[in-house]
Design brief:
This protein has 289 residues and is mostly helical. It is built from 9 helices and 2 strands, in the order ααβααβααααα. Helix 3 runs antiparallel to helix 4, helix 4 runs parallel beside helix 6 and helix 6 runs antiparallel to helix 7.
């Protein structure tokens, strides 16, 4: 039973409209080049409208892969498609794998702590996930290739795309863990000091601790996890091919959203630690920007 008839799952007409308009999303991100207000993470602020970091992150990111899987199962029935090609399910699996890590495993089980997220950021991220997953899920679930024959000749780009996606995902996880280790080290130090003073853990968690990471690509750029995510979705687009407009749009929209944040983040590091400590590191692309 449709959640919202002709919209969720979308009719072909509505899906084409959403997918077309979604290509103009970078226009909405232009404000980030002029306004530095971004109340989450390192730049989180105190507000009545804040949501606890872990819960906020999970609830704004998880609806993406849930929506995509819903469309993968509901659209074929709506469109009279008996079964989808394996490659469609492969791409859906990659999308789901990324977001199970990003939306559930990372915030709820791996991250020692997370700063509060303002309601405005939560709402915008949730909207991004719902629209983006509708575009990609619609393409994979019935409005893109729906037969094995339509994937004929795609074996090489599938293999290369899978490798690129895998490299990006592993790099993303590795550099995320480097950031987590900073908090874990802070927690160990806090626990050690409390034991030395004969105090019991107060249960308040770890205070914000920031240092300049050194390992992996952090020696060259300050936001390698951003770059690795772009590599992931570049591989994803490669699998879908040039005709996969939703995958291309997703990559462009991610870059448009995250690049100004990375440049602002570099300025934050410079102001906090000084140019000498940051050295020749770029923001997100080694040797370039």
């Amino acid at each position: 039973m449709p959640i919202l008839p002709t919209w969720c799952p979308p009719s072909r007409e509505h899906w084409e409209l959403i997918t077309f308009l979604w290509q103009f999303f970078p226009i909405l991100t232009l404000y980030q080049w002029f306004f530095k207000y971004y109340p989450m993470g390192k730049t989180s602020t105190v507000s009545t409208f804040n949501i606890p970091g872990k819960i906020g992150w999970a609830t704004m990111e998880a609806p993406g892969f849930i929506t995509l899987l819903y469309l993968m199962y509901s659209l074929p029935k709506q469109e009279g498609i008996e079964s989808l090609p394996l490659t469609n399910w492969t791409m859906a699996g990659l999308f789901t794998l990324h977001y199970i890590y990003r939306a559930l495993i990372s915030p709820l089980f791996l991250n020692p702590s997370m700063s509060p997220i303002h309601l405005s950021v939560w709402a915008s991220a949730l909207s991004f996930q719902l629209i983006n997953s509708t575009c990609i899920g619609g393409w994979l679930g019935g409005y893109g290739p729906t037969t094995k024959e339509e994937w004929t000749g795609a074996a090489m780009r599938l293999e290369i795309g899978l490798m690129v996606f895998g490299i990006g995902l592993l790099g993303n996880i590795y550099h995320d863990d480097e950031l987590r280790e900073i908090r874990r080290a802070a927690a160990r130090n806090q626990e050690r000091k409390q034991k030395e003073k004969g105090e019991k853990a107060d249960g308040k968690g770890v205070e914000k601790v920031y240092v300049v990471p050194e390992n992996g690509l952090f020696s060259l750029i300050l936001f390698p996890h951003y770059l690795c995510e772009w590599i992931e979705w570049g591989g994803f687009w490669m699998i879908g091919g040039m005709a996969c407009v939703p995958a291309r749009t997703f990559l462009i929209n991610e870059v448009a959203t995250m690049l100004p944040r990375a440049l602002d983040g570099k300025q934050w590091y410079v102001e906090r630690f000084g140019k000498g400590k940051i050295g020749s590191r770029k923001a997100v692309i080694p040797g370039i920007i």
